[in-house]
Amino acid sequence: MPKEPRILVVEDDMRIRRELLDALRSAGFEVDVAVSYRDGLVAVQRDYALLLLDLGLPDGDGLDLVRHLRDAGRGLPILILTARDTPDSRVRGLDAGADDYVVKPFHMPELVARVRSILRRSGRTVGQGLVRHGDLWVDAETRKAGKGEAPISLKPREFDLLLFLMQHPGRTWTRDQLLDRVWGAGFTGDARTVDLHVRRLRAKIEDDSSDPHFIETVWGVGYRMAEPQEVR
Ligand code: CA
User: Fold this and answer.
1) Ligand 1 centre from 52 Cα, in Å?
2) What spacing in Å lies between the alpha carbon of 116 and ligand 1's midpoint?
């Protein structure tokens, strides 16, 4: 798993693409490129820390890609590159779900600074209420969850437990602590309630629930959500 944030650049102009690639790589980022709308749509299935997106693509409108990703519940930060320097086009870009935009021609150091700033802002929590962990995501606002593009249907308490664990990656909780924090102090069930919910969650979120990569059992203690870089 790469340590540096991986950025996807979708840009059809070869000269701009090359400049972006050089500047971002020397700034320490891992960068992949896509040269068309179709290319970008396929590439963005991978997990990226940020999408740098040109709007004027030969086979489509970048704004449609933004809408597509947001409709699918993808919260990755999107920075739009646009030659359309009218207030209206900026508003449409942000309305579609982009986080920021840069108007061409742009000053490369400024663009890199914007990228850094967006990544700093997003941290592990992206957007409002959206928490991501590898390709697994939960949205506290809409109470939806999914893995990549695939939605995961969760019962209310399963959702609460998953959200709580994802908000504290790497931290181990005892069953009693989880009952207290997720079910609430007034709940009178016992520790097996937690085990039952973890089992159900694993069946829904893990590729192989007998070999969990997200919710780990800490023997003799309780459970923890793996750190994102530990998820294989
Ligand atoms: Ca273009």
Assistant:
1) 12
2) 23
Q: Name the residue with tokens 């942000």.
A: 94
Distance 11 CA to ligand 1 centre (A): 6
- Strand, helix or coil at 20? helix
Query: 36 CA distance to ligand 1 centroid (A)?
Result: 9
113 CA to centre of ligand 1 in angstroms? 22
**Total domains present in the chain:** 2
- Which range of residues forms the domain containing residue 213? 154-230
Q: Do 18 and 58 fall within a single domain?
A: yes
**141 part of a folded domain:** no
**pLDDT of the chain, 232 residues: tens digit per residue:** 234 689 999 999 999 999 999 999 988 888 999 999 999 999 998 889 899 999 999 999 999 999 999 888 888 899 999 887 677 777 788 888 888 888 888 889 889 989 988 887 765 333 456 788 888 989 877 788 999 889 999 999 999 999 999 988 888 999 998 998 898 877 878 889 999 999 999 999 999 989 999 999 999 999 999 987 654 4
Q: Secondary structure of 65-125 in the HEC alphabet? A: HHHHHHHCCCCCCEEEEECCCCHHHHHHHHHCCCCEEEECCCCHHHHHHHHHHHHHHHCCE
CA of 54 relative to ligand 1 center, distance in Å: 6
Ligand 1: centre distance to CA 214 (Å): 39
In a domain, 129, yes or no: no
Same structural domain, 116 and 196: no
Do 95 and 20 share a domain, yes or no?
A: yes
Q: Does residue 10 sit in the same domain as residue 68?
A: yes
CA pair distance 125, 137, nearest whole angstrom: 10
What's the pTM value of the predicted model, to 2 decimals?
0.54
